[in-house]
Fold this protein.
Amino acid sequence: MLIEIDYRDKRPLYEQISGKLEELILCGVISADEALPSVRSLAIDLSINPNTIQKAYDALEQKGMCYSVAGRGRFAAAADEVLPAKKREILDELGKVVDKALKVGLTREELTSYINGEKEEKYDTGNQSF
Amino acid sequence: MLIEIDYRDKRPLYEQISGKLEELILCGVISADEALPSVRSLAIDLSINPNTIQKAYDALEQKGMCYSVAGRGRFAAAADEVLPAKKREILDELGKVVDKALKVGLTREELTSYINGEKEEKYDTGNQSF
Amino acid sequence: MLIEIDYRDKRPLYEQISGKLEELILCGVISADEALPSVRSLAIDLSINPNTIQKAYDALEQKGMCYSVAGRGRFAAAADEVLPAKKREILDELGKVVDKALKVGLTREELTSYINGEKEEKYDTGNQSF
Amino acid sequence: MLIEIDYRDKRPLYEQISGKLEELILCGVISADEALPSVRSLAIDLSINPNTIQKAYDALEQKGMCYSVAGRGRFAAAADEVLPAKKREILDELGKVVDKALKVGLTREELTSYINGEKEEKYDTGNQSF
DNA sequence: GTGGTCTAGACCACG
DNA sequence: GTGGTCTAGACCACC
């Protein structure tokens, strides 16, 4: 399956799951209006309680990443419509990190060169929040 | 006082406090070997349970940002000695954010121009973890 | 066709359908005693399970918006006869909204001026319950 | 207690509860930064499962009506900060009702006179969503 | 004590 | 079959 959970991850399970799904939707792996796995099936798949999956889906829906239809299932939102907000969110996050960096004496030059240089020494962001 | 706590912050109190102290030390507001406020006084100062302060100091010490002398109190570590590690830590964090950004289609160019451009529209990183 | 369903709408399908039909009848788009589409044809038309259409028609009939003749089909009620009740129902709804508005400090003046002013900035009430 | 639940109400329990609390906060019955009843105590008070209360509080927090502090409890948000959004929300709702009213032939005059006239024939909005 | 997460198992409405 | 709600009981981190 597309989702794997990492029990060493500090984040709650539901957040891990919704984060991974969000990633899949935003990257286009799951296309717009495509059906997401049902609560029950995903629960069995991941050996996780359905309530937890439900909570993950609720969080996902609340972020606008999917919508549910009574008796039918859950479907992915159009990536185009949520991407801009997500980009803005990530830029905000970037801004905070930059602030912290500047406070400890790193320069903008160091940061930009780091960004443009770091291509090989990748971090495994595997199940990382998205 | 130099420390203010924000009760709407989702992070636990002790983390908020240790984060703020770390910032003060790294930025040089608290100089090397300067005495930190005692657990008791800080607890009174912030109207917070001493146990929480203790926990914050423990976290701080465990990060190497301060050291305690039995019967004398707690003192700030030399910023020079801990700064490199902190810089590396922040760069790691930066790397993760960059990864996320790239995944949603932002380019390195957009990121670097954002970094070099964002000077006025500061975010209030006030009690932000450091 | 005159009816379109919106799968992102939180209301159940049958309610969406009956609501839309009610609107068509009350507005005179479907005139009195005009035949409504058969369960089967509408089901095919909307690519929806006939049971769901049946349920929508049941709800509609129960509201007095149509009547069925055994073996002949279903026909629209006369708008004149059901309009007064509908008006009363909407006024009731209005009353509740007004109550809520007054509780949060909005004044009757603000509400009335809002009503008389809002002509351009229309909301898309498209498939809105009627 | 300030909250009563109505088992005849169609809405889910958690929504009923969060709605009632929202009302209390917006109307100033619960003032800013005042502690809300704890999950457990309210659960006992209403003879409802703590999980349901938790969900109600989650919804409330997600609307910005309160904030929670780990290990301390939950506190009401400042009404001033959320009132404008709530007013706008109610006006939107009003707009939709007005639209429906106009469609069935009611005039703006009828609506405004209804609003300014309906003072005695109050509806019991008791546990009504807010 | 507090909030937050998770499991297990049940029931309902919708399609 | 689907999503959604609710109960019961447990465990954790924080204060």
